[in-house]
């Protein structure tokens, strides 16, 4: 599976993608993650990616044409028709586990990472396939949302995780404990629940479900 990130800061996520499971998956050839500098797709000598908004208003708006050019170029890199172009936006659909399963069915995901005061609306209407939001809060750009989506989707790719149990959705929805059996915290002895020490997996499952 291929993930393409269109951004004006192509190195901003490098260190994250070169650690842990994402690095191992890339080394195995299970996934490919590539960041692309939007300025490489500009038309002028100043490599301008933004301009003032029509109708007035604060800040700058990212131009539509360089983004459209970048998307078309990246689409040509994958022969499969199973491609999806995603624009991160506050008004987008909320990203959840159902969306993770849906996006995992594609062979290529292209992420448009906005900055400044937003992206020309023609990108949303005529370039992107959908708009996504990872929460009801404002951050400076789409790069962190792209990393969140990549990590969540990559987990579902066969061979990505060592144990099938690790695919358990919403892991951590029940309490988990590890050694020692008795931990001293704030001068208190805090014990692991007895049921987890019983070896009775039926009782343990019931406890976790409860």
Question: Can you give keywords for this protein?
Answer:
210 residues, Alpha/beta knot, elongated, alpha/beta, single chain, 28% helix, 5-stranded parallel sheet, 2 domains
Structure description:
The chain has 210 residues and is of the alpha/beta class. It has two domains: 2-154, Alpha/beta knot, CATH 3.40.1280; 174-209. The protein has seven helices and nine strands. The chain has helices at residues 14-17, 20-27, 64-75, 97-103, 121-126, 143-154, 201-209, and strands at 2-7, 32-37, 50-51, 61-62, 83-94, 108-112, 130-133, 182-185, 188-191. It has a five-stranded parallel sheet with strand order 2-1-6-5-7, sandwiched between helices. A two-stranded antiparallel sheet has the order 3-4. Strands 8-9 form a two-stranded antiparallel sheet. It is elongated and about 70 Å long. The mean pLDDT is 93.
**CATH C-level name of the largest domain:** Alpha Beta
Figure out the total of helices: 7
Number of DSSP E strands: 9
Mean pLDDT across every amino acid position = 93
Content-based structural category: alpha/beta
Query: What is the percent of helical residues?
Result: 25-40%
Q: CATH H level of the largest domain: which superfamily?
A: SPOUT methyltransferase, trefoil knot domain
Biggest sheet character: 5 strands, parallel
The gyration radius over C-alpha positions equals: 22 Å
β-sheet strand percentage = 15-25%
- The CATH topology of the largest domain: Alpha/beta knot
Low-confidence stretches: none
Q: Domains counted in the coordinates: how many?
A: 2
SSE topology string: EHHEEEHEHEHEHEEH
The CATH architecture classification of the largest domain is: 3-Layer(aba) Sandwich
Molecular shape: elongated
Trace the largest sheet across and list its strands.
2-1-6-5-7
What is the straight-line distance between the termini?
37 Å
């Amino acid at each position: 599976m291929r993930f393409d990130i269109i951004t004006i800061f192509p190195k901003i996520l490098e260190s994250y993608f070169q650690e842990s499971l994402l690095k191992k998956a890339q080394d195995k050839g299970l996934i490919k993650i590539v960041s692309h500098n939007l300025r490489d797709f500009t038309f002028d000598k100043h490599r301008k990616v933004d301009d003032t908004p029509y109708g007035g208003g604060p800040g700058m708006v990212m131009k539509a044409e360089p983004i459209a050019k970048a998307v078309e170029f990246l689409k040509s890199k994958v022969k499969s028709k199973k491609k999806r172009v995603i624009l991160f936006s506050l008004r987008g659909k909320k990203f959840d586990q159902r969306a993770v399963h849906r996006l995992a069915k594609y062979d290529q995901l292209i992420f448009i990472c906005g900055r400044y005061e937003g992206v020309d609306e023609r990108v949303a209407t005529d370039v992107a396939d959908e708009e996504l939001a990872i929460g009801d809060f404002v951050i400076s750009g789409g790069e962190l949302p792209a990393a969140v989506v990549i990590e969540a989707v990559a987990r579902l790719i066969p061979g990505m995780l060592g144990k099938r149990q690790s695919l358990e959705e919403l892991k951590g929805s029940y309490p988990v404990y590890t050694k020692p059996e008795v931990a001293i915290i704030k001068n208190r002895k805090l014990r692991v629940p007895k049921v987890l020490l019983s070896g009775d997996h039926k009782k343990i499952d019931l406890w976790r479900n409860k």
